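REQUEST ID: PR-0412
SUBMITTED BY: lab tech R.K.
PRIORITY: routine
TASK: structure prediction, single protein chain
INPUT:
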Amino acid sequence: MKKILIISLAVLIIVPVFLQAKVTYLNEEEYKELKKEERLRYWENLENSLADYQQMKADAIANQEKYSAKIEELKAKLAKTNEEYDMVYNQILKDIDVSESDFPMIQRKIDYFNKKIANWDNLSDKQLWKTKKAVRGLIAEYKDYKQTKYAKAPDYRKDFSDLDNKIENLSMSLENAKPKYYEDSYTVVKGDWLSKIARYSFIYGDMSKWPIIYRANRDQIKDPNLIYPDQVIKIPRGLPYKWKVYKGECLWKISSYPEVYGNAAKWPMIYRANKDKIKDPDLIYPNQIFEIPRD
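STATUS: complete
OUTPUT:
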């Protein structure tokens, strides 16, 4: 029969009484070799250890009963919560007129936007700007889709939140990729004239700036009073770094244009930057292309 023995009397003396002594099992022969004092101490420790284990067992049983009751209580709360969730969830779907049969279509649309955005992630600024029309088209398409009932489905709230961030980052990337000077395009519609086009908020918001549009399109607009529906005209953005000379222009006149310097007195800046092309500042010719220095 195996018995329990205190490892050593010295350990029992040194270790504080509030710590449980470490014991080991001995066979009957080993037990017989113990002295009377060691046997008494052994039985005392054995009884104390047994009492400890009995208390631990009682505590475990009590905790088991307590936690079992708590688990049942939580299960009941969970069931009630799930029931209320389902009720609210189904009411939301009913209110927005979306059913679970629409989910595959919504997921395909989400995948479509993610794939399109991913196509532009690794492009350089120059490459991204070249695709600006497609990027702006996708951003507009996404904003339109966000207004539909399908984007309100609670199952896809996180997906659309992630897409919101991606679209915002894409918009910022496109803005950062925008060169200092570039040209948009505008298709003339019936009833348009240059000052009216310049007044549009998405053009310049200022009708007096119509000459800027005219000068950028002199290759196709011979008379600024005559433009036609379906003409696609260039809309300059920013300040140009090059200038193509047209008939009747001189350096001071070019310098006076608001898109150049807006100050005729600055014409020497153009002259100095283009001395290799201009022998006499009073003699410049149509179709010459000059550099326009910028600070």
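NOTES: The first strand starts at residue 3 and ends at 6.
REVIEWED BY: pending
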